[in-house]
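Re: the request from the purification team.
They wanted to know what the chain is likely to look like in 3D before they choose a buffer screen. I agreed to run a prediction and write the result into the notebook, where they can find it.
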Amino acid sequence: MQEKQVRQLETGKPGNWFVDEEAVNTNGFPILFIHGIHTSSETWFSGNDMLPITRGAGYQSVFIDLHPDKDMWRNGELLAAKLREMHEYFNEKIVVVSHSKGGIDIQSALVHYGASSYIERVITLSSPHHGSELADLAFSKWAGWLTDALKSKTPAVFSLQTGYMKGFRAETDGREMAGCVPFYTFGGTGWGGFNSELFWGGLYLSRFGQSDGAVLVKSSRLPYANEVAVEDWTHTTIKIGSKIYPYLKNLYTEKVASVPYAEVNEMPPAGETSVLHRGGEYEGVIRERFSVEEGVESITVDWISDRRDTMYELVGPDGGVFKQWSLSEDATGYFPGAYHHSILLSRPVSGKWEVKARSTQREHYMVSILFYKIGMSDAAGSLAVGDPTVRKTYTIHHIPMKSGKKTSTLITSEELSSLPLADFEEGIHNITTDLEGKTMQGQNFQRTMVQTIYVDGKGNIY
């Protein structure tokens, strides 16, 4: 069967795996490529030169399709069964190259479903081993209208919330099987320019550290793995053959020779970024208002929605109107099918601003205003802590992990410490904190913070 026919018949169906039948003079272990969230095996050869490069180097490529929207438990169990089939087919161990969530799926297969005897080593390309704050955001208060409409609150995204992943790490890292197969990790620090598909994700994550637009560098690391390289890759380019193969080839050989492991220090941010979220649904015209306080170097307004052709205007306190919005499709994997409408302004006038949206159809949206300051303490960071003049409203979305119907509980409170989180059924608490206050100069500010907490079946809080 020709390669093109194989792709057409096999890709996209969870559990199907296939080999590169044009590979000749195979050299060493077969290389299994595992895709990430909300994608398929197509990611390795559609707009990607990984297949011909691997073939040209004399290696046998193997591809598999997993559930694009399921958690690591479902995919791990499936992978373990298919790895057994591959081992019988090749009669030798396999080297795994996994992108994004694929790295967590393969670890689940090795540690929890007994597949370690089939694998020689695992290479993870920007895998969120500790979750992603973008997954936290997808399940938060202000994103709900949008993610419900997109049907993107999948088990895959749910499992990548940072609180959930703390629970997964607690269940995984202490097991003997966690160290049986060597892991080699890669991370990226690039997210492109303002009009790029990963700019918004990178800007949002910059509050937490360096990232590739979807996954933080520190989340791509495992304490017992070898970190091979952290370069200026985006979450998309880190899996492109011509970009990453020069780093992979030394990991394909029977024995890994001397690899110049990365010595990467987190670059301190030049300034501080904070965010305000709002969201909802409407038809016709809607206005979202927010304040910009003194000392803000720039703002980025990102209106992410399920509509492509909505008209937007940004109006400043001085009456200035801005209509030149950039448009991009979401590429982070956490808001599949959404569109980003963005505008970046330097040195915005302080005062009350307004975004006006006009749509002839019902639109579901979340608007994020990212505030950037240079060399100054952020209002939400410095004034909110212990400041009685700052009003804090907590919205807690509790989602049980073991409930078949995933019945959730929504609580709104102005006092977090009085809520007995450990009394709830095992699950995730997705907490949105809305802050309102005044700066030292008396100007209004609003900010939003999102975090997740995992409570296990014994009441332990992560």
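For the purification team: Confidence is low (pLDDT under 50) at residues 1-9, 377-386.
Please add any questions underneath this entry.
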